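Work Package 3 (structural annotation) set out to generate three-dimensional models for the target panel prioritized at the project kickoff. During this period the team completed the workflow that converts sequence records into discrete structure tokens, so that structures can be stored uniformly alongside our sequence database. As a representative example, we reproduce one entry of 104 residues exactly as it appears in the project archive.
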Amino acid sequence: MKLEINEKNEIISYLKCGGVDGINFTEFDGMVPDDFEKNFKPSFYMLKDELIIENPNYAEPEPPEVNPTNEQQILMQQAKTIAQMQQILMQQNKDIAKLKGANA
């Protein structure tokens, strides 16, 4: 097995066979925890004293903050304006229908 390890000895990725150009992998021939593949997440495991162990300092990464771009904000405002205009038009059509019914 090949392990990609960061400066904190956290396992970032692994390969069971083969290789990837541009990534420095460490060969590992030791025991692998039974649930390693099932539970693997970058930094969840680390290499310590030639053993793969759960990282005691692991913390779930926080999801990135997503902010709409200027274009998306403009499109959202336009959609809101169109919805408001449609409501006004529907109300006007109801009012016109009432007026026509009153004159008949």
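Residues 70-103 form the longest helix (34 residues).
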